[in-house]
Design a protein that fits this description.
The protein has 286 residues and is mainly alpha-helical. It has helices spanning 18-46, 65-73, 76-107, 113-122, 128-141, 148-172, 176-184, 189-200, 202-217, 221-226, 235-239, 250-282. Helix 2 packs across helix 12. The longest helix has 33 residues, at 250-282. The chain is globular and about 70 Å long. It starts with 17 loop residues before the first helix and ends with a helix. The relative contact order is 0.14. Residues 282-286 have low confidence and may be disordered.
């Protein structure tokens, strides 16, 4: 007499059960909807007539009147130019300072190195709201209120500490033998950094540039506190002009929000192939 033993199929390591797969996909779909819905709402509201801006109905008669009002009746292009100046200079200086600082700490031993890195780390512990008043007083004493340079310096204090730590971790993954080969070829430390190391650090530089740009482009608190007057506002500060004590002009404000997001999206598209590699490498060591 022979018997057969029925056994459940053995699941391979890493293979999910059907229930787990359904739960995972449902979670991802829900997260995607939550992430996309606010963006879609802003876009659709910007296409509604002013009288329908706060209605929950779908767009019945799409119009560009909000964009037309924004361009013709506000200082949007002045705000845009101020934002490009502040974000552009912040990005360039942020990348340079973070890259040179990260490389110096990664490759050289010098007095005060550990306190420097601890200082950069500790500065990340303070929320922005705590720093607004002291930075406002400092910029006032330096005569930098209502000046693009004041915002640039402020944004660098936010972006550089994080980016310097990240670049240090990225440079730690680049073999020291490359630096030694540069010295053999007669390059000084800066020449080695500029000619040999930086080309290999493009993913890390892309992350640093993106973070510095986003920090300056979309920041609201400092821009609103440090800059007044239409000729001095950035885009983030300009958005505040559409909100009064009792009401908000939703149509032009959502139109401005859409236009503000476009440069950041373009920057991301060009930098995205380096972003994942740069963030991964920067987090592996250091």
């Amino acid at each position: 007499m022979t018997g057969t033993n029925s056994t459940a199929p053995v699941r391979k390591r890493g293979e999910r059960s059907p229930l787990a797969s359904v739960a995972l996909h449902a979670t991802l779909i829900a997260a995607s909807v939550i992430a996309v819905f606010p963006v879609l709402w802003v876009l659709l509201t910007s296409l509604k007539p002013a009288k329908d801006a706060i209605s929950t109905d779908f767009v019945k008669d799409p119009t560009l009147e909000n964009y037309r009002y924004l361009v013709e009746s506000t200082s949007f292009f002045t705000w845009f130019g101020n934002s490009v100046l502040v974000a552009g200079v912040t990005t360039v200086l942020g990348v340079f300072i973070a890259a040179t600082t990260g490389y110096a700490v990664s490759r050289f031993k010098f007095p005060g190195m550990r306190p420097l890195m601890w200082t950069l780390l500790v500065t990340q512990m303070f929320p922005m709201a705590i720093l607004i008043v002291p930075l406002y007083n400092l910029m006032g004493q330096l005569g930098l209120l209502n000046q693009p340079l004041g915002l640039i310096i402020t944004y660098l204090t936010i972006a550089v500490p994080f980016c310097a730590w990240m670049m240090k971790g990225f440079f730690d993954t680049i073999p020291v033998e490359i630096d030694e080969s540069g010295r053999v070829d007669g390059l000084n430390p800066f020449g080695t950094f500029w000619r040999l190391i930086l080309p290999l650090a493009r993913p890390g530089l892309a992350v640093t540039a993106f973070y510095s740009f986003i920090t300056a482009w979309g920041e609201v608190a400092y821009a609103s506190a440090f800059m007044v007057g239409d000729d001095n506002l950035t885009l983030a500060g300009g958005l505040q002009t559409f909100v009064t004590q009792y009401t908000a002009n939703w149509g032009p404000m959502t139109a401005a929000s859409v236009l503000i997001a476009v440069p950041a999206a373009i920057f991301f598209v060009f930098a995205q192939r380096h972003l994942v590699a740069g963030m991964t490498a920067g987090a592996t060591k250091g």
